[in-house]
Design a protein that fits this description.
- Keywords: ATP-binding, Leucine-rich repeat, Nucleotide-binding, Plant defense.
- This protein has 933 residues and is α/β, with parallel strands linked by helices.
- The chain contains 22 helices and 34 strands.
- It is globular and about 95 Å long.
Length: 933
C-alpha cells in the first residue's frame, strides 16, 4: 500500500509539473506576443482542461481506494505532536512556608509578578537559596554584556575583524540583559556574515527562518545550503575542500551514511548485478555504471526520473520512452548530435551536455520551460547558444567554460572559443537566473551590458568581456553590480586592438562597474586606464580575498591595497610602465624623512599569503623597509618573474616559505631578501644573469630549506659549503648552468641525509659527480644526469643508494666510448629498489649495457637514441617489466615479443622511422593495455 501512495504522489507531481509547464508556456507567449488575449484563449482551451480534469480525477480515485483499503486494514490517522511534554513532577520543600518562591507550585506567582511589572523596568531573576522575594537587577555594563556575547558565540573568545564593527549594534540590541546576550550569541553562532546582518537589521526571526516575508519565497539554493551545513555539522559529510574564497568545492560522505543511503535506494537503482530480476517497476535512477543494453528491461519507463548516459548515441526512443525524466546527464558521452525529441521532456529540470562534441543545439530544447540547470562545460565545438534560449524562463543555472586556465585543452583552444562565442539576445529576460559564469558583450541591442542589470538574482562567479564595447560610465552602471550581494567572484576583461586609433574609456567604464562590498575575488585583464577608480579601497572592498590585475600596460602606479585586511592572494602582472612601488601601494602616508607618519604599530597586508609580480620590464625599486611599518607578516609565497631591472626589494618577510626569482638581471634582490629570511622551505632561482653563487650567509639561516632549484644562471659556478647543513633538503636541481663545475666536499659527518631527488642537467663544465656525497644520500629516490657533456664515466655508489627507485642517465660526451659508458652500470643489480630506468646512448652503439638485463625487479624502461636493430634477446629476464618505451632508435625495423613477458602493459614507440610492424609474439602479451607509435 505504501508503494501505491508513493506512486500516486509521483503521478500528482507529474500533473502539477505539466500544469506548471503550460503556465510557463503561456508566460513565454505573453512575452513574445504581448497579447493578453492569447493567455485567456490558451487557458480556456477545452482539450487541455478536459485532459487535466481526467488526470486529477484519476489521482483522487486512487487516493480514495487507498483510504478504503487502510480502513479495511484498521489503520487510523494519528496526529503526532512535534514535541512530547513530560508531566511536571511536584516538589515540596521541607519547610512549610507560603512565602518561599521557586517551587513548581509557585511558578504562577512568579509569572504574575513578572507580568505586572511596568514595561520600562528591567527585571532579572537569579536563584539565591536564602532569597525570600524577587530581586530587581540593573542593566549590565556594555563591556560585560559584550564579554558574555563573545563567550557564547566564539569558541576561543577571539572576535573576527568583520564582527568588531558590529559590536555597538549587538550590545545595543541586548539592552544590558545577560540572558539576551547569551541567547543572541547562541543564535549567531556558526552563522554566515549575511545572517549576522539580518539579525542586526531587527529581523532575527526572519533570519532564523521562523518567519518569512509573505512577498518572498525562500530561495531553494539557500535552503539546500542550510541542509548541507547541517549535514557537515553532524559529520554526515566530511573532509571538506575549500577554494580561494573558502567556498566548499568537494566533500566526502561517511562510509556508514553512504551504505545507509544506498540501502534505502537499492530498490530504486538499476543495479547491474541484478539484471536477472524480472521486476524493475520501482527503478527511478539509471546510473553510469548501469548496463546500457539492459535499459529496455525497465517495466514502467514513466517512473524513471534520473538517467545518466555515456554511450556515443542517444536514440529517440530513449527520449520518448522516459518522458518524465527530471535529470538527464549526457556529459562525456561523446555524442555529436542531440535529437530534437529532447523538447518532449517537458518535466526536465537538469540537463548536462558537458564535454560532448555537440556543434549545434536543437531548437526544441528551448521548449524545456521547466529546466532549471543547464550545463555545457567544455563543449568547444558549440559556437553559440540559441536565440530562443530566453524562452527557458525557469533557468536558474547555466554553466559553460570561460576560464582559459581551466585546463590544457582550453589553454590552446579557449581564446578562439570565446572570441567566436555569441550570447543569445535579451538574456535579461531570464530573471530567475543565478549562475551565469560568462557574459560576452555584443553591439546589438539585447547583447549589451544593460542585460546584466535585469538579472537581479545573479550569484557566484561572473566574467564580462569584451569591455571595450562599453563606452560610458552610465552604461556600466546599468549592470547594478553594486547591488548584487551574492556575487563573490568577478572578472573584467578588455581586448583592445591597439593598432586601431580609437578613444580609450576604460577608466570611466571600470568606475561604473563598482561591485558589492561582499566581493571576495576580483580579476582585471588588459585594462588600459592610467589609474584605478576610487572604489579600490578597504572601505569599499572590505572582504576582498583574491585580487589579480593583469595587462595594465599604462598604469604607472598600483592602487592602495595594503589596508585590505582579508586579502590573501595578490597577482600584479604586466604593469609595463611601472618603475617604482612605494607608499601608495601600502596605503600609508609618509613624512619628509620618508617614514610613515601613521602609528608605527600599523600593519599592511596583514593577511596576505601569496604575492606575484610578473612581467614588469621597467620596475627598478620596490620600497618598504624605510616606511617604518610592519608589513607582510603572514606572507608565505613570493614570486618575481620577468622584472629585469629590479634591484631594490623589502626584507620584512617573517614567515616566507617559498621564494621564486625568475628573469631578473641583478643578484641584489636575492641578497636583500635573504638578509632577514629564516623560514624558507623552497627556493627557485631562474635566469638571474649576474648570480655567480649562493653564499654561505644565504643558506646559513634557512636550515629548513627542502627544495633548491637553480636554472639558466649563466654565471653561476658553485654551491656553498653550507649546503651540507641543509639536513631537511629533499630535492636539488641544477640545470642549464654552463659554468657550474663541482660540488663542495663534505666535511666530517655532514651529509644530505634527507635528499630524495638530485637532477643535473646541461651543466657543461661539470666533470664528476660527488661520489662521497652520494654514498651518504641514504634517502635518495631519484637520480637524473642529463646532457652534462664533460662528465666522465663514474661508478654508481650502490652501497649508499639502496632506496634509489628512478635512474635517468646519458652518455655525457660524444667522446665517451661504449665500454666506458657500460662500466657505470657495474653493480646496478645491487640497487634493490630500482623500478624505473631511462638510459640514453648514441646511434653508433648497436647494443645495450648487458647489466640492464639482470634487473628482474624493473617495472619501466626507456631506451633512447641507441643504434640497436632489435630488442635484446635477454630482455625477457625483466620479468616484472610493465612499461617499455623505445625512442629515437633509427635502426629497428620490427620488434619480436615471442619471449614471454607476462606483465607488460604498455609499449610506446616514438621517432623510430624504420619500424613498420610489431606483430611477432603480441599474443604473449596477455596484460597489454596500450600499444602506441
Amino acid at each position: 500500500m505504501l508503494e501505491r501512495v508513493v506512486e500516486d504522489a509521483e503521478d500528482a507531481e507529474n500533473v502539477f509539473d505539466e500544469f506548471r509547464y503550460e503556465s510557463l508556456k503561456a508566460q513565454v507567449m505573453n512575452i513574445r506576443a504581448k497579447l493578453i488575449q492569447n493567455i485567456c484563449n490558451f487557458f480556456s482551451h477545452t482539450a487541455f482542461k478536459y485532459k487535466m480534469f481526467g488526470k486529477i480525477n484519476n489521482i483522487n480515485e486512487e487516493l480514495r481506494a487507498i483510504n478504503n483499503l487502510a480502513n479495511d486494514l484498521g489503520l487510523q490517522s494519528l496526529m503526532v505532536p512535534s514535541r512530547q511534554i513530560l508531566p511536571i513532577r511536584e516538589t515540596y520543600s521541607v519547610v512549610v512556608a507560603s512565602d518561599v518562591i521557586g517551587r513548581d507550585m509557585d511558578v504562577a506567582e512568579i509569572n504574575e509578578k513578572i507580568l505586572n511589572m511596568r514595561r520600562d523596568v528591567v527585571l532579572c531573576t537569579i536563584p539565591i537559596v536564602v532569597a525570600v522575594d524577587l530581586h530587581m537587577l540593573g542593566k549590565l555594563a556594555r563591556d560585560h554584556c559584550w564579554s558574555i556575547f563573545k563567550q557564547r558565540t566564539f569558541v576561543d573568545g577571539e572576535v573576527p575583524e568583520e564582527v568588531v564593527s558590529m559590536e555597538n549594534g549587538i550590545v545595543e540590541m541586548c539592552q544590558g540583559l545577560p540572558l539576551a546576550a547569551s541567547v543572541l550569541g547562541g543564535l549567531l553562532r556558526n552563522k554566515e556574515k549575511h545572517e549576522w546582518h539580518a539579525i542586526l537589521d531587527d529581523n532575527p526571526l526572519v533570519a532564523e527562518g521562523f518567519l518569512r516575508p509573505c512577498q518572498e519565497a525562500p530561495v531553494m539554493e539557500d535552503v539546500g545550503n542550510k541542509f548541507f551545513q547541517l549535514l557537515l555539522q553532524n559529520s554526515l559529510l566530511q573532509d571538506v575542500k575549500l577554494d580561494e574564497q573558502e567556498n566548499t568545492t568537494h566533500c566526502k560522505m561517511h562510509d556508514l551514511v553512504h551504505d545507509l543511503a544506498r540501502d534505502i535506494l537499492k530498490s530504486k537503482l538499476f543495479d547491474p548485478k541484478s539484471v536477472g530480476r524480472e521486476n524493475f517497476s520501482q527503478v527511478r535512477y539509471f546510473g553510469w555504471d548501469s548496463p546500457k543494453d539492459q535499459i529496455d528491461r525497465i517495466n514502467e519507463p514513466e517512473r524513471l526520473c534520473r538517467l545518466f548516459w555515456r554511450s556515443n548515441y542517444v536514440s529517440e526512443d530513449i527520449l520518448l520512452n522516459f518522458k518524465f525524466l527530471r535529470v538527464l546527464n549526457l556529459s562525456s558521452s561523446g555524442i555529436k548530435v542531440l535529437s530534437a525529441k529532447i523538447g518532449k521532456l517537458i518535466y526536465l529540470r537538469y540537463l548536462d551536455l558537458s564535454d560532448t562534441k555537440i556543434k549545434v543545439l536543437p531548437k526544441p530544447i528551448c521548449k524545456l520551460y521547466n529546466l532549471q540547470t543547464f550545463r555545457i562545460n567544455s563543449c568547444f565545438s558549440l559556437k553559440k547558444l540559441l536565440e530562443e534560449m530566453t524562452n527557458m524562463i525557469s533557468l536558474r543555472h547555466i554553466h559553460f567554460n570561460y576560464n582559459y586556465q581551466s585546463n590544457l585543452y582550453f589553454a590552446v583552444w579557449g581564446s578562439r572559443f570565446i572570441d567566436q562565442f555569441q550570447m543569445p539576445l535579451n538574456m535579461g529576460q531570464l530573471t530567475s537566473l543565478q549562475t551565469l559564469p560568462f557574459f560576452y558583450l555584443g553591439l546589438e541591442k539585447g547583447r549589451q551590458i544593460e542585460e546584466l542589470g535585469r538579472l537581479k538574482n545573479l550569484r557566484g562567479e561572473l566574467t564580462i568581456k569584451p569591455l571595450q564595447l562599453v563606452v560610458k560610465k552610465e552604461e556600466a552602471r546599468t549592470t547594478y553590480l553594486q547591488e548584487k550581494s551574492n556575487i563573490y567572484k568577478l572578472a573584467y576583461l578588455w581586448s583592445h586592438d591597439e593598432s586601431e586609433d580609437c578613444e580609450i574609456n576604460d577608466e570611466h567604464v571600470l568606475d561604473g562597474l563598482q561591485p558589492h562590498p561582499n566581493l571576495k575575488t576580483l580579476t582585471i585583464v588588459d585594462y588600459l586606464g592610467t589609474k584605478f577608480p576610487s572604489w579600490f579601497s578597504e572601505g569599499l572592498l572590505p572582504n576582498l580575498v583574491v585580487l589579480k590585475l593583469s595587462g595594465c600596460k599604462r598604469c604607472k602606479d598600483i592602487p592602495s591595497l595594503g589596508q585590505l585586511k582579508f586579502l590573501r592572494h595578490l597577482q600584479l602582472i604586466g604593469f609595463l610602465e611601472l618603475e617604482s612601488i612605494g607608499p601608495t601601494f601600502y596605503g600609508v602616508d609618509v613624512n619628509d624623512s620618508g617614514s610613515s607618519s601613521n602609528n608605527l604599530n600599523i600593519q599592511v597586508f596583514p593577511s596576505l599569503k601569496e604575492l606575484v609580480l610578473k612581467n614588469m620590464r621597467n620596475l627598478i625599486e620596490w620600497k618598504g623597509d624605510e616606511l617604518g611599518v610592519r608589513m607582510f607578516s603572514g606572507l608565505e609565497k613570493l614570486k618575481f618573474t620577468k622584472c629585469p631591472l629590479l634591484k631594490i626589494t623589502p626584507s620584512q618577510f617573517e614567515i616566507l616559505c617559498e621564494l621564486s626569482i625568475e628573469g631578473v638581471d641583478s643578484e641584489m634582490p636575492l641578497l636583500n631578501l635573504f638578509s632577514n629570511l629564516t623560514s624558507l622551505v623552497k627556493l627557485i632561482v631562474d635566469d638571474v644573469k649576474e648570480l655567480t653563487c649562493l653564499s654561505d650567509e644565504m643558506l646559513h639561516n634557512n636550515v629548513s630549506l627542502q627544495h633548491l632549484l637553480v636554472s639558466l644562471c649563466r654565471k653561476f659556478h658553485e654551491l656553498p659549503q653550507n649546503l651540507y647543513n641543509l639536513h631537511s633538503l629533499k630535492s636539488l636541481r641544477i640545470s642549464f648552468c654552463p659554468y657550474f663545475s663541482s660540488f663542495p666536499v663534505p666535511t666530517r659527518d655532514n651529509y644530505l641525509t634527507s635528499l630524495q631527488s638530485l637532477e643535473l642537467c646541461h651543466c657543461d663544465r661539470l666533470t664528476s659527480l660527488p661520489n662521497r656525497m652520494l654514498n651518504h644520500c641514504l634517502s635518495l629516490v631519484s637520480l637524473n644526469v642529463i646532457n652534462c657533456n664533460n662528465l666522465v664515466p663514474f661508478f654508481l655508489p650502490a652501497r649508499g643508494l639502496h632506496r634509489l627507485g628512478i635512474l635517468q642517465i646519458d652518455p655525457f660526451s660524444e667522446m665517451v666510448d661504449f665500454e666506458a659508458f657500460q662500466l657505470i652500470f657495474n653493480g646496478i643489480q645491487q640497487l634493490l629498489s630500482l623500478r624505473t630506468l631511462e638510459v640514453r646512448g648514441h646511434l653508433h652503439w648497436d647494443s645495450l649495457p648487458y647489466q640492464l638485463m639482470q634487473l628482474s625487479d624493473l617495472t619501466a624502461i626507456q631506451i633512447h637514441g641507441f643504434g640497436i636493430e632489435a630488442l635484446p634477446h635477454r630482455l625477457h629476464n625483466l620479468t616484472s617489466l610493465e612499461r617499455l618505451t623505445l625512442e629515437r632508435c633509427k635502426r629497428p625495423q620490427h620488434l619480436d615479443f615471442s619471449d614471454t613477458r607476462p606483465k607488460l602493459r604498455y609499449v610506446v614507440i616514438r621517432n623510430c622511422p624504420l619500424l613498420e610492424a610489431v606483430s611477432d609474439g603480441l599474443g604473449n602479451l596477455v596484460c597489454l593495455q596500450e600499444l602506441s607509435f
